[in-house]
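Annex B.
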Amino acid sequence: MWSTVTATTATTATSESRRRTLATDAPVRPADWAPFPDDPRPFRPARSDRSPAVRLRGVIGVDEDVLDWVPEERARYTRYGAIVVNTALLGGVSMALAMGTFRSDLPLAVVILVAVVWFWVVLALDSWLVSSTHGVPARNPLRVLLPRLVLSVLLGLFIAEPLLFQIFDKEIHQQIAVGNEEKVSTYKGMLVSCNPADGSDTSGRAACGKYQLKVEGSTAQLRDDIQRNTARTKAMRAQVDGINKTLNAKMATEQRECARDKWIWYGDVADVSQTCERARADSSSYRTTSKIKRYEGELENLVAKGRTLTARMEKAGDAYQPALQRSIDAKTRQRAAELDDDGILTRAHALEAVAWSDWYAGFVFVVLHLLILAVDAMPVLAKLMSGCTTYDTLLTARLDTSRRLHSDDLQVQHACATMEYEVRRHRIEQDTSERMRRLEHDHGLAQAERAALFRAELDARAARILRGD
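DUF4407 domain-containing protein: predicted structure tokens.
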């Protein structure tokens, strides 16, 4: 039995020794194991990007520190910034085309300056529209993006029109030319209708109020002049006839009163009566005061003018028609020169006429308009289509953390301020207690001195009494 135990013990020891040998000989690390470097590069955040793409992302307000945690989205936001810059470039080109088209008299430097300023305005607006959407919660992005989309579409409408003017430039010029020809033809037709070659009066027609011409040698004008001259001649003749009638009556009275049979004889000498002298003076005075000579001269001038006008009336027909035609042609050329062929409203109306001339032109117009609007609104549309990204989630978390840290900092500041106030209050209370103790001590000393003085005074008096002083 003892041998059995000994054999078992030996076997157990041998097995234990073998296990220890195997455990010692087994390698602790695999054969292909290599030690880690002393300063390993972390997986996140990634190394900072130093490429020019950072500037594009900076245009739309991307925080590179946050983006380093999701470097997979660097390409997305780089192209996002490129979209914003391209939209601003499109706006600058549109403004340059508009200024060059509508204000062709401006120097090239001014056009470039205005285009650069407009490029900067569009870039700033689109940059704000995009940067203000970073970190928008995914639960309600439309409420935040819809107002920005409306503003972006309005900006796109302003940018799209000059581009459409350039796309349909040839058709617009043709439409403006046809429209101006129609306006000039209508205007000339009204001039011809309201100014007949025979000189007939058209002043009674309401439509001819602003189309009537005053042409020298017009038979209508001569006819009016003859009518006015005839009326004045008639009135002057009636006036002259009235004066002559009165003058003839006065002359008849003078002849009657101064007749030979009414002479007064003084011997062989004859004299007229006083009645004759009064009649003679009356007729002479009336001839002077009535201005008959002047009126008769004016009547002769009116009669001569009437003959001249009648002669001109007979010859006016041959000279009036060429003069009328020259006046109509001059007015027509003036009207054609006054018509605008390159104004913004004129081009807008022409573009509308071209767009809705047939269904296909309207279709192309609408498609191009929507395409340009989509390109102009692409910064906000891209954000709306991409939805909430990981960068937005991280940025929202950072903003929430900053908000909480700020709140905690405010609480710490409040607690510190409260404790500082408590310390100050306690110091004031301690100072007050110390001052009260000092006052009580001083008051006790003063009372003790007074009591000592009083006792000394009593002792002195008692001593004097005992001495018999």
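The longest strand covers residues 264-266. The CA atoms of residues 355 and 365 lie 6 Å apart. Further annotation is deferred to the next reporting cycle.
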